[in-house]
Design a protein that fits this description.
Elements: H1 2-12, H2 17-35, H3 42-56, H4 63-72
């Protein structure tokens, strides 16, 4: 099994960046399931920090905005 993984890593290096990113995300999810710890990407950390800053400023979505979101999602 380890040999197959090592061989696959060589192939993965030739994948487009978006495919490599998708694989990295899947690997993070597997690791989180195994360990019970999810490690955020820098992009996720930035998004969380921005969301917290918006909440601190009292910037919340209105009821109408939330209803529109649910409608777009088919609910």
């Amino acid at each position: 099994m380890i040999l197959a993984l090592k061989q696959m890593l060589q192939t993965i290096e030739s994948w487009p960046p978006e495919d490599q990113q998708a694989l990295a995300e899947a690997a993070r999810e597997i690791e989180a399931e195994r360990t019970g710890v999810y490690v955020m990407t820098p992009e996720e950390e930035s998004a969380v920090e921005e969301g917290l800053a918006q909440a601190d400023r009292g910037e919340f979505a209105s009821d109408d905005e939330i209803a529109a979101l649910w409608r777009r999602q088919g609910n």
